[in-house]
Specification:
Elements (H helix, E strand, L loop, with lengths): L2 E3 L6 E3 L3 E2 L8 H13 L4 E4 L4 H10 L8 E6 L1 E4 L2 E4 L3 H15 L4 E6 L5 H7 L5 H10 L3 E8 L2 H9 L5 E5 L17 H7 L2 H21 L2 E5 L19 H9 L4 E5 L5 H8 L6 H4 L31 H13 L3 H8 L13 H5 L6 H12 L2
Parallel strand pairs: 3-4, 4-5, 5-8, 8-9, 9-10, 10-11, 11-12
Antiparallel strand pairs: 1-2, 6-7
Helix pairs in contact: 1-2, 1-10, 2-3, 6-8, 8-12, 12-13, 12-15
Bound molecules: iron/sulfur cluster (SF4) (2 copies).
């Protein structure tokens, strides 16, 4: 496993994590086998938004004697009513479900307490105040029942507000090549696939830029970005109007290539799917290459760096993907963290000899030399 810092929490998280979405109806044996396969593969970040007692019990059993090996992301605002999962902003109800989560997981604390599914501006106002769920999460943190506070969202403007509020350490956001072309203020009530197949090229491009700005904002604020739904609910594996058939490894590489992403949490319903995700760790550069997304006519990627490093090796040792990502973040806002990250690079953009081999290799038509010159202009080396 490879590890990255989960933003300002300073905790090392495995780049491949586990989401529980498809384990809701699974048996105790299945949950245990998937969780153990994950932990054996080095996974140490598990997201558990589900509120149903059975799945919470099963995770508690699976994590017996292994709780210390993983960070658990539990959600505040995800409840069960009449047997149906739903979102709640009622503090009494949410407190009850949080206590239930701790009991069933047989733990005293949750590592990342996620304010669940903050999707609309008025919901932000409801949740983000001392009388709302944010205040409740802060109380749990003071009591030692939560180590860090996070948010899960699918909505770019709202997620951006949560990141810039200064109150959160972690953002869980949908990141995949299909979703990145959707309108930024899309609400999940709209059929994902309908929008995916029918929206225009212009919206796709605009949406991608809005999402890029969000990811860079996470980098600026040092908020750990957790990528959820990396496979777009399987849409990316099928032959479809978007012409984007990708493998799990390619999808994970796409998500992990975005700025500020620390870990990706694919929903795995069995050990085979968990192993397919863990295969990312051993995959070759060819297997990781996600440039097939270029075949999708909705993508207007020409010239946009995806930080994928398909252009390496550079003869003078520049890590082109990371150098460009840091430079792009600095284009939004520059701070000490970004400068330190640049200074830590072993080869700086100023070493570029303008040989051009990277430009020939880049599948996205990026003018790397222009980007290296931009880095030198910003960082002076
Ligand atoms: S320049 Fe091209 S190949 Fe290199 S990191 Fe950017 S998009 Fe990838
Ligand atoms: S053009 Fe610059 S960054 Fe690209 S391979 Fe050559 S030296 Fe490296």
């Amino acid at each position: 496993m490879k590890y990255r810092k989960l933003g300002r929490t300073g905790v090392d998280v495995g780049i491949v994590g586990l989401g529980a979405e498809y384990l809701e109806q699974a048996s105790e044996d299945t949950v245990t086998s998937v969780v153990h396969a994950a932990i054996d593969g080095g996974v140490n970040y598990i997201d558990l938004f589900l509120a149903s007692p059975g799945v919470r019990d099963n995770f508690g059993i699976a994590l017996q004697n292994k709780r210390h090996q993983v960070m658990i992301a539990g959600h505040l605002g995800s409840v069960l009513r009449d047997g149906q999962y739903c979102r709640s902003r009622d503090k009494v109800e949410c407190e009850k479900f949080f206590a239930d989560l701790l009991t069933r997981l047989k733990t005293d604390y949750i590592d990342a307490l996620m304010l669940h599914f903050v999707e609309k501006p008025d919901d932000y106002e409801t949740v983000f105040n001392s009388e709302g769920l944010l205040g409740l999460a802060q109380k749990f943190k003071k009591e030692g029942k939560a180590r860090f506070i996070g948010v899960s969202s699918h909505n770019v403007p709202v997620a951006l507000r949560t990141v810039n509020s200064g109150h959160i350490d972690v953002l869980m956001f949908t990141i995949n090549p299909a979703f990145d072309t959707l309108p930024g203020d899309m609400h999940v009530e709209v059929s994902f696939k309908e929008v995916l197949y029918h929206h225009s090229d212009a919206i796709g491009r605009e949406s991608m830029l809005a999402r890029e700005a969000l990811y860079h904002a996470c980098a600026i604020q040092n908020v750990g970005l957790v990528a959820m739904k990396p496979y777009a609910a399987g849409v990316l594996f099928r032959d479809n109007p978007t012409s984007m058939m990708l493998t799990p490894v390619q999808c994970l590489n796409y998500a992990l290539s975005q700025p500020a992403v620390c870990t990706v949490v694919p929903g795995c319903k069995n050990v085979a799917e968990m192993n397919a995700a863990l295969a990312f760790l051993e995959a070759t550069d060819e297997e990781k290459d996600f440039s097939a997304i270029n075949a999708n006519t909705m993508w207007k990627l020409k010239g946009s760096c995806m930080y994928c490093n398909h252009c390496l090796p550079c003869p003078v040792g520049i890590d082109i993907g990371i150098t460009t990502r840091i430079t792009d973040t600095a284009g939004y806002e520059i701070n000490d963290n970004i400068v330190s990250e640049y200074e830590a690079l072993s080869a700086k953009a100023s070493a570029c000899t303008e040989c051009g081999v990277c430009v020939e290799r880049c599948p996205f038509g990026v003018d790397v030399i222009v980007n290296m010159n931009r880095a030198v202009d910003i960082f002076g080396q």
